[in-house]
Design goal:
single chain; 481 residues; alpha/beta; seven-stranded mixed sheet; five-stranded parallel sheet; 17 helices; globular
Length: 481
């Protein structure tokens, strides 16, 4: 970027996927438009990528954070195509596209055609031992229960229990959805997390009717899978960090500043400049600022300049989770591992909330004679917090004890790696969309300012990318007038 006198400065705080995307889009779009803009990314840690982190060890490819993104939300796939890394996509193993759910100490396959909370196929649902006959009959009543007329926000638990009954929630929906959001369904907003089911009720009057109709329309497409539509999930041959590494590589050489913690922000209205105060006492000046941090982190930075916005941001709750990667010789696991993994209902009262069979889910994740397992610990609520707060050794011990029982493990693992994500998962509680609308209205009052991240309109990788791209567009269109 040329050092012309009218060159402006943009600073992005936070080097996760949202912050990297914001920087990338600021750089590329300003170049396209001929806008002289210098972009800096400030990251407090010694690496960028945030929760996305892949390591390699002894022939294993190990994900310490997200291991997939969903392709139906277009933003991640489109960005990868733009970056030219779509040739490195890796889909899930087509031979083992099923998942299991734990019931009374045993793993049962999720019935074919079952999608998160309701069935689209009759016979697999009738035959499954996951639900009692009473539970199955109650779920069938969804076909005739009148649709809800009120437009008030409803919790996921309230919605599922109202339409499909208690067993549908406790036995399958809670662990499936909990595995996505690491959250308690009684608090989660249906509108903010699973609006597609709300639309199903409005359009078809029944979730089961809607899923059956979708199955017929897809002509079998993904309906033969259990629990999740595995054909829609993508990763990379060398792991998810391929995406964040590529984004970082496409930024100017001097763009990223690692180990740079920000303490707070101020705005000088007479100069129309932002003052970025660093933890080491230094100050930076910028025309444009994007905070791409968890909401609680953003709250601390704007507390002095916008106390009301800070209070609103701080009111978004977060949950913590941990991932325990374990490597075993394949011969030392009795379970056939004939699926992508399993989820654990809270009523089972286990320390793990699920486990992915990583070396089955994706090819090339482990040497031929080994298996790579990935257990999840933590989540919302006091029990999840208690499990998360255990020491790494205690966490590994409890995970191994349960996996020995459930999968028939023999002996000790080749290695056990724990990666903790404290206060990393935004919780979209009842009223979340109204809260976000309030936050966005308050943020608009700050000139040349934007927010990005998983706290607002979606927690997945595509959502965070979309958030970063929208933040960049806002800064370019509003901040550079």
């Amino acid at each position: 970027m040329s050092n012309t006198s009218n060159q402006k400065q943009a600073i992005v705080i936070g080097g996760g996927i949202a912050g990297l995307t914001t920087c990338y889009r600021l750089v590329t779009e300003s170049a396209k438009r001929g806008i002289p803009l210098n972009v800096k990314l400030l990251e407090g840690e010694n690496r960028v990528g945030g929760a996305i982190h892949t390591s390699k060890q002894d022939g294993f490819i190990i994900e310490h954070g997200p291991d997939v993104f969903i392709s139906t939300k277009p933003w991640a796939k489109a960005l990868c195509e733009e970056l030219g890394i779509d040739d490195q996509f890796l889909g899930t193993n087509p031979k083992e596209r099923r998942s299991f759910v734990l019931r009374k100490g045993k793993l049962y396959p999720v019935p074919d055609g079952f999608y998160l909370m309701a069935p689209a196929s009759f016979m697999p649902f009738v035959k499954t031992p996951i639900f009692s006959w009473g539970g199955k009959l109650r779920m069938g009543l969804d076909w005739v229960i009148p649709r809800r007329r009120s437009d008030d926000d409803e919790s996921l638990e309230g919605f599922i229990t109202r339409r499909l009954g208690k067993q549908a929630f406790t036995r399958i929906a809670q662990p499936m959805i909990g595995g996505i959001y690491t959250a308690d369904g009684k608090d989660l907003s249906l509108k903010a997390t699973m609006p597609q089911f709300l639309e199903m009720e409005k359009k078809h009057g029944s979730i089961i009717k809607a899923l059956v109709a979708r199955k017929k329309k897809s002509q079998g497409g993904a309906s033969g899978t259990s629990g999740a539509r595995y054909s829609l999930f993508l990763s990379f041959k060398d792991g998810m960090q391929t995406l964040t590494d590529t984004l970082a590589e496409r930024l100017p050489d001097d763009c990223i500043q690692l180990g740079t913690k920000v303490s707070h922000l101020n705005y000088q209205s007479d100069l129309e400049k932002w003052q970025i105060h660093l933890a080491n006492g230094e100050q930076l000046q910028s025309d444009l600022v994007c905070i791409a941090l968890p909401a609680h982190g953003a709250a601390g930075l704007v507390k002095k300049i916008a106390p009301s916005l800070s209070e609103s941001l701080a009111s978004i709750p977060y949950a913590s989770s941990a991932i325990v990667n374990l490597a075993f010789r394949r011969a030392d696991i009795e379970h056939p591992l004939n699926g992508a993994g399993f989820v654990v209902p809270a009523v089972e009262e286990r320390s793990i909330i699920g486990c992915t069979f990583s070396s089955v889910k994706f090819e090339g994740r482990a040497p031929a004679e080994y298996a790579l397992l990935r257990a999840y610990v933590g989540g919302a609520g006091s029990k999840g917090e208690a499990y998360f707060n255990r020491s790494e050794s205690e966490m590994v011990e409890s995970v191994l004890k349960e996996l020995h029982e459930l999968l028939g493990l023999k002996g000790d693992p080749q290695f056990a790696l724990v990666y903790k994500h404290p206060n990393a998962m935004a919780q979209y509680h009842l009223g979340h969309l109204d809260l976000v609308a309030e936050i966005e209205a308050q943020a608009k009052k700050l000139p040349g300012f934007a927010l990005a991240g998983n706290a607002y309109h979606g927690i997945g990788i595509p959502d965070c990318i979309n958030s970063g791209e929208k933040a960049a567009a806002l800064l370019l269109e509003q901040g550079l007038k």
